[in-house]
Structures are given as C-alpha cells and as structure tokens.
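A reminder from the course coordinator: this example appears on the midterm review sheet, so study it carefully.

Given structure:
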C-alpha cells in the first residue's frame, strides 16, 4: 500500500493566487515525503482556508499516515463529495479502505481512480492490492502489467504480478518475474517470502526454508507466519503450524486468512488456552468455510470435556445439524454471539474453533487416534431420500458426486475437475449417481443429461440454504466420489465412505502430501492425480479402484 501524491491545478478563492496555492501544496507534499506530519498539517490548515476540498484531502492523507483510519475516511469522503475532481482524495480512499479491511469499497474507489488516473502507479498498486484481497487475479494482472518496467522495476508491481501469475497457474511467467525480483530486490523480505510461496506446492520443504529465511529479516511479519503455517500443516508440523495459524486471525492478513464475522469486532478473542477460566463460559465460534468448520469441530468433544461451560456459535443453516450432533451443548447463531460474550464477569470471551486444534491435534498421531464420527444426519430425511432413490431408480447402489469446489478463484482452479473428464466413472450402469454439487451448474447438468441415463438431480432442495436436507441426502448415498469440497468433510464427519479426488495443482493441508487415507476422518480414501498422468488415466484408475468396492448399505 502506498500514499498517493497528486499535483493538481487547484481552484482557489479570489484573495489567493493559484500559483501561491500550488506552492503550498508542494510544501505539503514535501512535508509528507519527509514524514513531517505536524508541518504538513499546519500547511493543510492554510490550504483549507482557501480551498476546502484540497485542505480536507491533505488532512485525510495525514490522518491515514497517522493510522487514524476512521478520521481519514471521513475527511477524504467529504473532500471528494465537495469536488468530484479531487483526485488526491479519490486515490487515497483506496489505501484507507484497505487499512479498514473493507476491500469491496477499496475496489470500488480503485475502479473510479483508475478510470481517471490509469497511469498513476500508486493508484494502480493500491487498486491491485485491493483486487488481490478479493482474489480477482485476472483484473489485478490487467491493472499491473502496464506498470512493469523490467529495467527499473517497482517491487510492489513485481510482487503483485508474481502473485497474480501464481494464482492463475501461469508458472513460467511467475518464475520469469521472480528472477527479475531476485536480481533487484533479492535481499528484501517480501521477495524471499514470495519465492517461498512459489515453492509451496511443488517443494513444501524448500518453501519452509524460504519462509524461515524471510522471518530472519522480519521476525514478526504476520503475513509470512500465516503463509508458513499452511506449509507447516501440510508437512505435518502441526505443533508449530497451529500456533502460526493463529496469525490468520489478524487484520494484516485480510480476507485470505481467517476473518470472523464483523459482529465480533470489539469482543474478546481467545487463542491462548491459559487465559480460559473453566468456571466461566467460553464461546466457541465456527469460522471460515463450512468445510473448514466441520473439520475443526472434530476436537469439540475434547474441548467440552475440558471446558464444560461452552457455547457453540454457528451459522443459522448449520444449527439443526449441530444441535442434533451435540445435544447437550447450547448452540446459538452468529447474531447472538457478541451479546452473549459481552459480560466479562461470567464469560471468558470467544475462541475461534480453528484455534482449538493446537491443543488437541499437535501431531499426526493425535489426529489418527481421535478419529470418530461426530455429525449426525436426520434419520427420517435420510430414510425418505433412500426410499425415493431406490424405488424410483431400481439401482443396486447410489453414489453421490461433486466435481467442483472452492470459494476463491485460485481454490476453484486447484480443486475443480471438469465434469467432461468423469466418463470412466459414469460408465458403471448398475450405479445411480446423484449430484450433490451446489452452486451454478446448469451447463454441466445439460451436458450430463444428454449423455448419461444413470445420473439424478434432486430438484427443490437448495443445497446451500437447506444444509440439513443436503447433509441427509449425502448420508443417504452408499458412497461419495468428490473433489475436495465441503461435501467431503460432511460425509467424512458422518463416517460415510468417500473417494476423494485431488488434482496435481495442490490440495488443502489436511490431505497431506502422500497419504492414501485421511488422518482426520475414518473412511476417506485419497486418489491423487500425478503430474505424469493424463486426466483419462487418472479417472480410469479411480473408477477401477473405487467402483468395484461399493456395497449398498
């Protein structure tokens, strides 16, 4: 994030000449560059008397530099409202909203600023930074590419471009720019970290060495510790990995970390077990995607045993499943969470459930020894689905399937396996395949309907909203074949047999590097596509290994 200084032709009141106001603006810019904020504020007061919008813009920038983000927002917005051509105010609203972690607004103002200042490098860098937080890599790439000067590179432009290329799996382009970055900025922390990020998928052990080298430069860098934690967890270094994982809760990491619902801002967050008083109530808060939540809930019974005065806070759609699965545990929705945690006399505060892992899952053995089935489906709904499916189809067995996952753009590219590739699996005509895929799937549905007679769709059931109904349908299937998505976690936590398909582009840390079965769930078999394998070879292998073992329950 960079401060954007913009020289403008100021309109001023008649009793001051324009060139005099321009001189004051130049003095203010010099003071800001020298970080002489008090001097800059004095000058901005004078500017304000003769050009209110310009004076407010400078005051807003000073507030931003002082990390008074609410004040900066107020001043810059007022400046921009007074004069829509006040480019300094417009440009600096982008870093203001980045600092306030409101990335959607940062993107919105970035779009406006870029439209009128497409060549301003500071605007482009900040706009791209906001886009990267929203994981809009293609757009960020479009914004940054014109700013690249290979002979006189800017480190922020380089790091942004390399991040985009990595996320879009443009390996050659990323490595080409990384060589330039190492040539000009090889001793900088951010370049050492970026190289470690680049190695994370293909050589996690080397990546870990890189992260440690980056931390030698900046030992307290939050983002580096967060990125390193994901590699540590993937390598099975759980003890330190989970400790570093807590860095994802901090604002420096942003939306790509572990952001909690905004309702909890200001409430006491607990990550250290030593600060929990067992005599007070502790609120366990479900976090991140719904699949992550299921995974983390695997330790909940152990946590409750140690801290009986526990209340679980979760999404409304998840609540029926949790109440049935943990009948003695109070379960409330996110909206009531901050209110319940507000009384420090009787409550410890709230603990994100991902932070519980470091006490109960510090080794691979901890995972394996504590595997159990902990989510319970609605037996009435389950029986109804099985009756409908078998009566209408006359099938020998029912297999649920899902071919795409991931919320973010990069995760989708990593996890999804295009439905056109699944032909070897769907060739088993004795099996009825039930789509458990949520999201927009009209094109895939049309494709499958024209090619296969043994695929079924459950109309009238909103998989995202009616989570309990979807979960019952999952458990009504004899077997699940799926890419890494929430479906796998729900089925795994209920003890259902799952064949998990992983691409050669990487996978979430919980599936490890070479494991053939899950360390977290009792009945998940892992099929990893190898780089040397074609897609056809991989799916034929899955069909041969998985379908021959399916037995109706």
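Designed residues:
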């Amino acid at each position: 994030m960079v401060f954007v200084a913009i020289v403008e032709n100021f309109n001023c009141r008649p009793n001051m000449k324009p060139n005099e106001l321009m001189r004051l603006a130049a003095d203010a810019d010099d003071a800001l560059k020298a970080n002489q904020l008090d001097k800059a504020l004095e000058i901005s007061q004078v500017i304000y008397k003769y050009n209110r919008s310009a004076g407010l813009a400078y005051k807003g920038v000073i507030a931003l530099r002082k990390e008074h983000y609410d004040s900066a927002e107020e001043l810059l917005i007022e400046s921009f409202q007074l004069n829509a051509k006040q480019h300094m105010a417009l440009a600096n609203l982008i870093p203001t909203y980045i600092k306030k972690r409101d990335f959607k607004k940062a993107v919105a103002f970035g779009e406006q600023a870029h439209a009128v200042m497409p060549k301003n490098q500071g605007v482009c860098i900040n706009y791209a930074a906001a886009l990267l937080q929203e994981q809009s890599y293609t757009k960020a790439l479009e914004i940054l590419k014109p700013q690249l000067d290979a002979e006189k590179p800017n480190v922020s432009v380089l790091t942004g471009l390399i991040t985009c290329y990595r996320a879009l799996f443009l390996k050659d382009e990323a490595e080409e720019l990384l060589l330039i970055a190492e040539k000009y900025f090889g001793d900088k922390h951010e370049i050492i970290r970026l190289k470690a990020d680049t190695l994370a998928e293909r050589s996690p052990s080397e990546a870990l060495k890189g992260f440690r080298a980056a931390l030698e430069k900046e030992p307290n860098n939050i983002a580096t510790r967060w990125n390193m934690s994901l590699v540590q967890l993937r390598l099975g270094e759980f003890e330190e990995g989970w400790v570093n994982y807590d860095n994802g809760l901090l604002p420096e990491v942003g939306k790509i970390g572990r952001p909690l619902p905004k309702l909890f801002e200001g409430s006491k967050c607990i990550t250290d077990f030593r600060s929990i008083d067992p005599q007070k109530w502790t609120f366990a808060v479900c976090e991140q995607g719904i699949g992550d939540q299921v995974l983390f809930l695997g330790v909940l019974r152990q946590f409750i045993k140690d801290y009986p005065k526990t209340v679980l806070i979760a999404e409304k759609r998840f609540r029926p499943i949790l109440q049935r699965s943990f009948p003695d545990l109070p379960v409330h929705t996110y909206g009531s969470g901050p209110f319940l945690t507000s009384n420090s006399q009787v409550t410890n505060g709230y603990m994100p459930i991902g932070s519980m892992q470091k006490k109960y899952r510090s080794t691979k053995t901890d995972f394996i020894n504590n595997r159990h089935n902990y989510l319970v489906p609605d037996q009435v709904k389950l029986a109804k689905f099985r009756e409908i499916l078998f009566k209408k189809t006359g099938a020998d067995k029912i297999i649920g399937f899902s071919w795409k996952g991931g919320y973010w753009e990069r995760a989708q590219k990593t996890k999804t396996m295009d439905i056109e590739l699944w032909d070897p699996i769907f060739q088993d005509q004795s099996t009825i395949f039930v789509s458990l895929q949520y999201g927009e799937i009209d094109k895939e549905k049309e494709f499958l309907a024209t090619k296969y007679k043994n695929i079924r769709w459950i109309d009238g059931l909103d998989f995202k909203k009616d989570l309990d109904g979807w979960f019952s349908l999952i458990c009504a299937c004899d077997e699940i074949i799926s890419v890494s998505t929430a479906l796998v976690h729900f089925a795994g936590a209920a003890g259902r047999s799952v064949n998990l398909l992983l691409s050669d582009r990487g996978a979430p840390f919980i599936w490890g590097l070479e494991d053939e079965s899950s360390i977290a769930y009792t009945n998940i078999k892992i099929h990893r596509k190898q780089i040397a394998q074609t897609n056809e070879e991989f799916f034929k292998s899955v069909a041969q290994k998985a379908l021959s073992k399916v037995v109706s329950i």
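The domain at 379-549 is CATH 3.40.50.2000 (Rossmann fold). The chain has a mean pLDDT of 90.
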